Fold SLIT-ROBO Rho GTPase-activating protein 1.
Amino acid sequence: VKKTSEATLTTIQDMVTIEDYDVSECFHHSRSTESVKSTVSETYLSKPSIAKRRANQQETEQFYFMKFREFLEGSNLISKLQAKHDLLKRTLGDGHRADYMTTSRHPNGLFKTLTGPRRLRPRSCFNVKLFNGNLESFIKDSGQAIPRVVESCIRYINLYGLQHQGIFRVSGSHLEVNDIKNSFERGNDPLTDDEDNHDINSVAGVLKLYFRGLENPLFPKERFSDLLSCIRIDNLYERALYIRKILLTVPRSVLIVTRYLFAFLNHLSQYSDENMMDPYNLAICFGPTLMPTPDSQDQVSCQAHVNEIIKTIIIHHETIFPDAKELEGPIYEKCMAGGDYCESPYSEHGALEEVDNEGGTETHTSED
């Protein structure tokens, strides 16, 4: 760029020094009048017109300014990169020391180094992977009965997305999904600020991404055939009991997470008039994620049965999963915000209605 600019500048200087009617060359070879006339005529005809030469000069000047600007911007970028290179080289060179080097701004714009006690920044809070890892191992390593990513995403949807149309069906922003995912992997929780500043579809996408990437699906592969056989049971209550019997054989820690998730999905389906996601639609979204069909099975024929099983578990989750007395662990709560958000269990007149054992209703006042 520099060489091109210099050559262009030389061309411009030559253009500026040329005179429009320079006839000095006519007298160089002969002093004859006839020779002068003939040379002037040839010179005048050979030179381009004034307007054309001025247009060429303007075009050349614009080209020069463009290259000069490119040279300045390139020089500035090179200077910045060189400064970064020098700083990184100095920092990496001192990395073997026990004390780390901290930097501060010097009045002349350079960096000076100050020594301080060494701080280690952990890459991850846990030894076991969160995404694309083993759920049972992660719970054991982290001590989180419900992985934070599951609990936080569900809480966020509980607060801001129960009535969001097409939730779990509409894809979120790939960039935001990755940002939230990476934040959880670093041990942070980006959804705890109690502000609706995240796209609901992206949060839902993170939750699906977590379960889809598990090393072992939430419903174990070795139980796939047993679960699929329950489709032959037409009575839904008996089918639910059959599924319960199978799920009680999975590890306790996994069963607690499964119970938590399906209680949330049941709650979400109660808003199907607004979010358009009834139990069947939710089953279509979560079936391949929670209960993937083995390669040895026919994918097309099995998928409809898988969706029906997931739908049954969403609807009859209270029958299928043991309660807190039978299986100690976190329970999903419909109200997670407190205050005005919580739906009062009392009716408009301050009465709480309960269904008695005989199918009637008993009314209790709030004072009771």
